[in-house]
Amino acid sequence: MGKYAVKRILLMMMTLLIITFMCFVLIRMLPPAELPIEDPHSAVILARREAAGYNKPYLVQFGIFLKNIFTKWDWGVSDVLYFGRDVTTIFVTKLPATVVVNLYSIIFAIPLGVGLGIFAAIKKNTWIDHTISTLTMVCISVPSFVYAFIIQYFLSYKLGWLPFLMKGGTDYFSFSMFVSMLPAIMSLGMGVVAGFTRTTRAELTEVLTSEFMLLARTKGLTKTQATVRHALKNCMVVVLPSIFAEFISIMSGSLIIEGIFSVPGVGGLSLNAINGRDYPIFTMVTVFYTTIGLLASIVIDISYGFIDPRIRMGSKK
Questions:
Q1: How far apart are alpha carbons 225 and 65 in whole angstroms?
Q2: Could you write out the DSSP letters of every residue in 24-47?
Q3: Which of 218, 253, 302, 311 could form an S-S bond across to 267 if both were Cys, CB 3.0 to 4.6 Å?
Q4: What contacts 132, CB < 8 A, 6 or more positions away?
Q5: Contacts of 218 (CB under 8 A, 6+ apart)
């Protein structure tokens, strides 16, 4: 397991470096945004562009970029969106909104999804199972932004129960702020609920028909006891790694959902950086998203071995 983990981490670092280089070159192929001549910060940013090697080959620019990060943790300053401000400071101020909204959506989605999956598996081949499975497939097939528009139309516009947009400010754990985040939370959570319902239902259905479950019933355990003590434990070998990955990905946010509900998070920052050709912000957000995705993949693989000792990743036997 130790060798496997080290190997995966090294591969992750290599993958991250390759993806970062590709995105770095692609964004630098676009002409840089023009700077306002009358602004005193323009001279500073032009000097930083010169120091970053904007007029040099892409490979040299990338080398300067890596050197600044590893030696000074310097991701540059914003060229367009937050003119002259440090990119790291901007990113840190945007991250809490993304984390809180996604954390609420996971807290809402995971228990509901796992519970529906267990209920559907226990009621296999009944109208309850068919209904849950059909709704699950519909929810998985529909993009999250469609739910966002439906929620905005019915709950915000027609009924007036919820606000259209997220409330401004940084008091993320107040009741009024939570209410304003509900549309975004529900939109993000629908797909997660459907995914966990399908996974839990499929795994638990397979476990319930296993031979060891028949043995447990012949020993005198009731169906409920056998399900709780044995079936759920084996089912969680597949479900728990997905839960770990979801908690890691709470920082990634959603580009479209954050834009629809005006969530002041990383997703909106990423879109604005692309539209405004703000190289430093776009590069940092891209590295961030890539790192989160790669970490989630590693956690899923490694967690199997900790949840079930019989699984040993990388073993030749």
A1: 59
A2: HHHHHTSPPPPPPTT-THHHHHHH
A3: 253
A4: 116, 119, 120, 197, 201
A5: none
φ/ψ of 223, rounded to 5, equals -60, -40
Q: What is the pTM of this model?
A: 0.78
Q: How far apart are the first and last CA of the chain?
A: 13
Residue 86 bridge partners (DSSP): 77
pLDDT(244) > 70: yes
Record the tokens describing residue 90, joined without a space.
């901007």
Query: Residue 77 forms beta bridges with which residues?
Result: 86
Task: Give the whole-angstrom CA distance, residue 317 versus residue 313.
Answer: 10
Q: DSSP 3-state assignment of 262? A: coil
159 to 151, 153, 263: CA distances (angstroms): 10, 9, 22
Q: Check: CB of residue 187 under 8 Å from CB of residue 257.
A: yes
Contact partners, residue 275, CB within 8 Å, separation at least 6: none
pLDDT tens figures, 188-214: 888 888 888 988 888 888 887 777 777
The CA distance from 50 to 44, in Å, is 10
- Distance between CA atoms of residues 21 and 69, nearest Å: 14
DSSP SS3 for 34: coil
CB contact at 8 A, 213 and 230: yes
The model's confidence at residue 26, banded by pLDDT at 50, 70 and 90, is confident
Who contacts 246 (Cβ-Cβ below 8 Å, separation ≥6)? 106, 110, 192
Measured on CA atoms in the order 84, 90, 93, 97, is the torsion positive or negative?
Answer: positive
Q: Which of 290, 202, 273, 208 is nearest to 16 (CA)?
A: 290
How many angstroms separate the Cα of 120 from the Cα of each of 124, 215, 255? 6, 23, 32
Where does the pLDDT of residue 129 fall: very low under 50, low under 70, confident under 90, or very high at 90 and above?
confident
